[in-house]
Amino acid sequence: MASTPFNAELITFLDASPTPWHAVRSIQERLTAAGFTPLVENESWSLQPGAGYFICRNGSSIIAWRQPQGSEPEKSGWRLVGAHTDSPCLKVKPQPELVRKGYFQLGVEVYGGVLLNPWFDRDLSLAGRVSWRDEAGELHSSLIDFERPVATVPSLAIHLDREANSSRAINAQTYLPALLSQTDEKPDFRQLLAERLKADGETGVARVLDYELCFYDTQGAAEVGLEGDFIASARLDNLLSCFIGLKALIDAKPGVGQVLVCNDHEEVGSLSASGAQGPMLKQWLERVMPDAEKRNRALSVSMLISADNAHGVHPNFSDKHDENHGPLLNKGPVIKMNANQRYASNSETSAVFRDLAEKQGVPVQSFVVRSDMACGSTIGPITAAELGVPTLDIGVPQFAMHSIRELCGSRDAEALSRVLTPFYERAKI
């Protein structure tokens, strides 16, 4: 049982979101229940001051917002929170069927910077999006989730690989095909998907044409530890930030313009129609503020908080952190800084966040990568460069980033949400 209602809802969200498409569906459901109105990009919009709306692109990216109140929104600007819906995983190849020694396997492609070792010997299921044609010749797309364990990637016994604990490298092409069953004939994977669609209630399925499917660990999210200090789950990076931003937006009172943007494809560079380096956010902004001068004036007094999890200092590997910048779990959100602009934080945006956190009684930590190590990045610098909006990079500290099962503190997510809510309400940056 979760220790707080916030964590109980978070765990439900994580378990319901095995892929970016499922995550966006979960976000849509919560927004609709909170009174936000869905809009479609190829239709005209009639927007009312203070009202909430959302749009989706590719089914895997979403922008939710409240229209600003007041006659001159360009003077108050927008308060934006950004996160990403995708996580590193194993994706099924287009022609994946393999039959070796009587075993049916699916070939996989590595999506993003996956920590591969933890994927072995897990109870895996399949979920994603399937495109199909019905008996009348019409095309459809549906979300699919097998839910139960249907596959595993078995390890090789140590007796046959004596170097497994010292020097084995994982060959993604040969070591990772997932094992599904025993068979004498090669199954038709698309036909298996068609049968699953029919079992899910889809009628008239004639042929599955294509799919985007991810394997995922069926072990659910949970609070763990003697005192429940931690949350263990798949996809904490970065569904945790999506949920935190969502809760803050829903809880915020209308006033200035308030935006939550959750993009897909961050883990592979963000360069796509629905990624942060694509046109989605800019095109949305041009529609809600069509006057270019007013839009640019608004951006100059706006602020984006890019929320993406931070590297907590690992007690077994503390030397991997700068000695003065090792964030601890359950000690508050982390401001991420980098002199080479891998993070977009600066002293002014950091000061705004520190001021908000102090007023909420939430401690703040800092992360700077060791000077002799390379630094990762986020959607923060990308969005800042695309829009020219002042930006801050923050995140909840976590362990095991990009593993099949990650770990964060059980008190940090709610603490960050308590800071983001007044950020959405802040009248002046």
UniProtKB/TrEMBL annotation:
<keyword id="KW-0482">Metalloprotease</keyword>
<dbReference type="GO" id="GO:0005737">
    <property type="term" value="C:cytoplasm"/>
</dbReference>
<comment type="similarity">
    <text>Belongs to the peptidase M18 family.</text>
</comment>
<dbReference type="GO" id="GO:0004177">
    <property type="term" value="F:aminopeptidase activity"/>
</dbReference>
<dbReference type="InterPro" id="IPR023358">
    <property type="entry name" value="Peptidase_M18_dom2"/>
</dbReference>
<keyword id="KW-0645">Protease</keyword>
<dbReference type="InterPro" id="IPR001948">
    <property type="entry name" value="Peptidase_M18"/>
</dbReference>
<keyword id="KW-0479">Metal-binding</keyword>
<keyword id="KW-0378">Hydrolase</keyword>
<dbReference type="GO" id="GO:0008237">
    <property type="term" value="F:metallopeptidase activity"/>
</dbReference>
<keyword id="KW-0862">Zinc</keyword>
<dbReference type="GO" id="GO:0008270">
    <property type="term" value="F:zinc ion binding"/>
</dbReference>
<dbReference type="GO" id="GO:0006508">
    <property type="term" value="P:proteolysis"/>
</dbReference>
<keyword id="KW-0031">Aminopeptidase</keyword>
<dbReference type="Pfam" id="PF02127">
    <property type="entry name" value="Peptidase_M18"/>
</dbReference>
<protein>
    <recommendedName>
        <fullName>M18 family aminopeptidase</fullName>
        <ecNumber>3.4.11.-</ecNumber>
    </recommendedName>
</protein>
